[in-house]
Structures are given as structure tokens and as C-alpha cells.
Design brief:
By secondary structure, this protein is an alpha/beta fold. Helix content is 31%, strand content 16%. Helix 8 (240-247) links the parallel strand 10 (233-235) and strand 11. The chain is globular and about 60 Å long.
């Protein structure tokens, strides 16, 4: 049998060799009678709950763009989403590891054209451009309503502490106590504080500042997530968990967001979690700072009274590169 390879049209900027190779593989598969048309999209290591939710939503969108593809490897028992997979990936597997900027259209093209058979996905992909439909994202993660919901008279403050108080990551520093105090004073709402409250100077400062206010005990990752998700007024921390629970909320009317750390577009231009077209959001300006848990930084975090300027959505858009 004579196999004739004819170069066909290809996307702008793409070489024809990978397409020729993929067409050769497809032809050989057809000749041998092997059914290798199903691409496997396997989610690998994901980290915490919010990171795994981002990965799952991204890969669901990728699956929609690749007919007959199979999504496997996810493990989010909090939302009854578990599909283990121990079968080996094929030789032509695209491994996406780390990072936030991964074009879903490009990956889908490479799978459809058989440039790659499978993909092992371990990226972070925390950019709003990948999730144009918030309602669809939320539909993947229904979950039960929390035991208690907080209405329009309450400001729910979600705190990120514990491990980020150490020199863990330069873009994941804790949020100053005076920032939460400023929002509570400006909104004149009743503060309720929840999240990672422990036995440490940061937690002690929160308890002093909000003396007499209610502090919720940690229940579970899902319980805390759903509590934030069903609140009306939310002050989030520099945290993907806090951010995602607030963004997915269908009850939130006001979401207060610190433009800080990985949420600062000039500090982390590869991340974009700033919903500047969403009227629920109120943005507050922070200077670029890399967190190293120094004595001075801890003092500013706990003791220093600072004024955090509220900035318009248009100003935030101008900051995004």
C-alpha cells in the first residue's frame, strides 16, 4: 500500500511537520485497526482544594474542545468528584507542569490534530480569561449549603494565616489586621471572623482588634468554603481558597479584595484574578511587597495602622499588563 503524505493548511505560525507526523500516526492506526482516537486528559498533582478546582474547571473546558476525550485523575472528594486512573499515558503525552499561562485552544488543537495523544495537566491556570462563564464553573461544584449563613448586616472576614505567616512564598503573605479593621469601620457592618485562626501573634492581634466579635471555629475545608460562598458581604485574604469561594457566590453583594501579593497585577502579571467588570467587587491598593516574614513585616502586619486606598475598577484595569 502506498501512503501519500500531502501537507495541508495549518494555523498561522505553526510548522507543517508536526501535522504531517500526526497524520502519519493516524493513518498507521487506521491501517492496523487500532482504536487510538480517544485522548486522555489526566489531572496530576493539584495541591489545595481551590487549586484542584481551578484545574478541574480548566480541564473540563479543554475536554469540551476535544471530542471523545476522557477526563481522569481528578480527586476532589469534597464535591464528590473522584476518578482515579493508574493506566499508563502514551509516549506522545504533553506534560503541562506549573505556571498559569496555558492556552486551552492551543492544547486542544494539539490533541485534535494528534500531535499529542494525551495530556498530563499539572498547571495552576488562575486567570479569568479561561473561565468566561462563572455559572458553569460553579455548576461543577454544587455542595450543600452551610449550617449557618450570614446576611446583609454582617461582614464575613476570611483570614489566611498559619503557614503563610512563615517565609513560605513571597506572593502569599498574610493580610494586615488594619486592612480588615478599615473595611469594618467603613461599611459599619458587624464583623464575623473565620478561617485560619490559631495560637500566634497574628491571630492574637485579630482577637484584640475585633474584641467582642464572633470568631468561627474551623469546621472543614468544604464547610469553610461554603460558608464564604453563601455570605452577603465578604472581605477576602490573599488566598485562592478565599478568592474562589467569594467569586462563585450567588449571594454575595459586596466582595472586598486586597490588590496584594499574587493578586497584584504588577507583582504577578501571570495571574489575573481581578474581576474588574463585576460590580460586586471593591478593590484596595497595596504596594508591591514580597513577603519574607521579617521582623519589620510582622510588625507592620500586626501593629502598624495603615490607610488602604480604595481604587476604581478602571484603575485596576489600567494596572493589568
Amino acid at each position: 500500500m502506498l501512503l501519500l503524505l500531502v501537507p495541508g493548511p495549518h494555523p498561522k505560525g505553526k510548522g507543517s511537520l508536526p501535522i504531517l507526523v500526526s497524520r502519519l500516526h493516524s493513518a498507521l492506526d487506521e491501517i492496523s485497526g487500532q482504536n487510538r482516537t480517544v485522548a486522555k486528559i489526566k489531572i496530576g498533582k493539584g495541591g489545595n482544594l481551590a487549586n484542584k478546582m481551578f484545574q478541574y474547571a480548566y480541564c473540563r473546558r479543554l475536554q469540551e474542545l476535544v471530542p471523545q476525550s476522557a477526563l481522569v485523575g481528578y480527586n476532589i472528594p469534597e464535591f464528590d468528584l473522584v476518578r482515579p486512573d493508574d493506566t499508563p499515558l502514551r509516549d506522545r503525552t504533553l506534560h503541562i507542569e506549573g505556571g498559569h499561562q496555558h492556552s486551552v485552544a492551543s492544547i486542544a488543537y494539539k490533541l485534535r490534530e494528534r500531535i499529542y495523544d494525551d495530556v498530563l495537566f499539572e498547571g495552576y491556570v488562575q486567570r479569568l480569561e479561561y473561565y468566561p462563564d462563572r455559572e458553569q464553573f460553579g455548576s461543577f461544584f454544587r455542595g450543600e449549603a452551610p449550617a449557618e449563613m450570614f446576611g446583609p448586616d454582617v461582614l464575613l472576614i476570611n483570614v489566611r494565616g498559619r503557614e503563610v505567616l512563615r517565609n513560605m512564598h513571597p506572593d502569599y503573605g498574610p493580610t494586615p489586621v488594619s486592612y480588615f479593621e478599615q473595611i469594618a469601620n467603613e461599611t459599619k457592618l458587624t464583623p464575623v471572623i473565620m478561617g485560619q485562626i490559631g495560637d500566634d501573634p497574628y491571630s492574637d492581634a485579630l482577637k484584640r482588634t475585633f474584641r467582642g466579635c464572633r470568631f468561627l471555629e474551623h469546621r472543614s475545608a468544604l464547610g469553610d468554603f461554603q460558608t464564604v460562598r453563601h455570605a452577603t458581604n465578604i472581605a477576602i485574604s490573599v488566598s485562592t481558597f478565599s478568592w474562589l469561594a467569594a467569586w462563585l457566590s450567588n449571594t454575595a453583594q459586596n466582595i472586598h479584595l486586597p490588590v496584594k501579593g499574587f493578586l497584584h497585577p504588577q507583582q504577578r502579571p501571570d495571574v489575573d484574578l481581578l474581576p474588574t467588570r463585576d460590580e460586586r467587587y471593591h478593590f484596595y491598593e497595596f504596594r508591591i511587597e514580597h513577603w519574607h516574614a521579617t521582623v519589620e513585616q510582622m510588625d507592620n502586619l500586626i501593629c502598624k495602622s495603615q490607610d488602604f486606598r480604595k481604587i476604581a475598577s478602571s484603575t485596576v484595569r489600567a494596572m493589568i499588563r
